[in-house]
Each structure stands twice: as structure tokens, then as C-alpha cells.
């Protein structure tokens, strides 16, 4: 259905979709709602598209990058499209809504990607630290490694530090040393 523009003496130019049977209407009732006065109900005259361009509602100018799908809204009327971008004019509410939907969907995907990248970065840092630690651990003998692992586990669970476990390891080690055994 075609979109027409009407001008209310109080609320200015607005857009309205009219079915073909009303497309000849020269004016419609402004349905702008005011908290004090309720509906405006003033006569809004149809604005002819030729005059709409020279004054009144201007089209929204956007730039789209066909390769990346990136979109930007022009900050002023005569702005040139950035390199790789194509200029587009959004003339009606349907086009504007479509653009807003596309832009917010894109923003959502970008946000998801950023979150994922941050997460990956964090995991990678953690993995690097882990690999680095493993490399250093391998320079020690197995008993020392167990001791280090044990104390690391204790450091991680500071609130539930269990001392007897460390003692058990000491005992194990000591028992292998026959000089400690009573004959
Ligand atoms: Zn009005």
C-alpha cells in the first residue's frame, strides 16, 4: 500500500499508509495523541511529494557496505558515502523500520561476536598459563611435581585447606626411605 505524507498545523508532517480507495484523500484527521488534550483530530493536509523534498520531511540518508553489510546513518544531508559504501535514501516508515531492524540485528551479531572473542581471549590466556606451568612442571621429578600440584590445589581451595593430606604424602616418601623404618 502506498505511503502518503500529511501535515498537521500543530504536529507537522507525518506519514500514513492508505489503501488505494483513500489514496485521493486531500486531508485526513491527525491522530496525534496528547496526554492533556487527547487526540489532536485537526485536519492534516496531504503534502505533495515534490514539495516534501524541498521542505518538510527529508529522507533518511544511510550508507551501506554491500560487501560487509555494515550500515551507517548520514549525519548531514550532503554527506558523501564512505569508501566502499553505497548511498541509500529511506523515504517512508517501512523502509526506515526495515533499516532499523537490519541494523539492530547486525549490532546483535556484532555483540555476540565481541563476547565470543573476549571469551576466547580469556580462555587462551588461561590455556597459555596452563601450558607454561606444565612446561615448568616437567623440569621437576615426579615427587616434587606431586608436591607442587598438591599445594596448588590447596591454594585454590584456601577455605578448605586440609593439612593431613600433605602429611600423607610426606609419610609415603618417608616410608620409601628404609632408614626411617624400625627393624
Ligand atoms: Zn495534530
Summed up, what is this model?
With 183 residues, the chain is α+β, with helices and mostly antiparallel strands. The chain has helices at residues 49-54, 93-137, 142-156, 163-176, and strands spanning 3-8, 12-17, 27-29, 33-34, 38-39, 43-47, 60-64, 71-73, 86-90. Among the domains are: 3-54, no CATH class; 150-177, no CATH class.
Task: Give a written overview of the molecule.
- The strands form 3 sheets. Strands 2-1-6-3 form a 4-stranded antiparallel beta sheet.
- The protein is of the alpha+beta class and 183 residues long.
- A hairpin with a 3-residue loop joins strand 4 (33-34) and strand 5 (38-39).
- 44% of the residues lie in helices and 20% in strands.
- Among the domains are: 3-54, no CATH class; 150-177, no CATH class.
- The longest helix is centred in the middle third of the chain and has 45 residues, at 93-137.
- It has 4 helices and 9 strands, in the order ββββββαβββααα.
- Zinc ion (ZN) binds at residues 8, 10-11, 30, 32, 40, 42.
Amino acid at each position: 500500500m502506498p505511503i502518503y505524507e500529511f501535515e498537521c498545523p500543530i504536529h507537522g508532517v507525518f506519514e500514513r499508509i492508505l489503501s488505494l480507495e483513500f489514496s485521493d484523500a486531500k486531508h485526513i484527521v491527525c491522530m496525534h495523541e496528547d496526554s492533556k488534550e487527547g487526540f489532536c483530530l485537526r485536519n492534516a493536509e496531504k503534502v505533495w511529494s515534490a514539495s516534501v523534498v524541498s521542505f518538510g520531511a527529508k529522507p533518511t540518508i544511510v550508507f551501506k557496505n554491500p560487501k560487509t553489510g555494515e550500515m551507517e546513518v548520514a549525519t548531514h544531508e550532503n554527506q558523501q558515502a564512505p569508501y566502499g559504501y553505497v548511498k541509500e535514501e529511506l523515504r517512508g516508515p517501512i523502509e526506515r523500520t526495515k533499516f532499523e531492524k537490519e541494523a539492530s540485528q547486525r549490532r546483535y551479531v556484532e555483540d555476540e561476536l565481541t563476547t565470543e572473542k573476549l571469551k576466547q581471549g580469556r580462555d587462551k590466556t588461561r590455556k597459555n598459563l596452563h601450558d607454561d606451568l606444565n612446561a615448568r612442571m616437567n623440569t621437576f621429578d615426579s615427587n616434587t611435581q606431586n608436591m607442587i600440584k598438591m599445594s596448588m590445589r590447596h591454594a585454590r581451595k584456601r577455605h578448605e585447606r586440609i593439612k593431613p593430606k600433605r602429611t600423607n604424602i610426606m609419610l609415603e616418601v618417608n616410608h620409601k626411605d628404609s632408614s626411617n623404618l624400625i627393624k
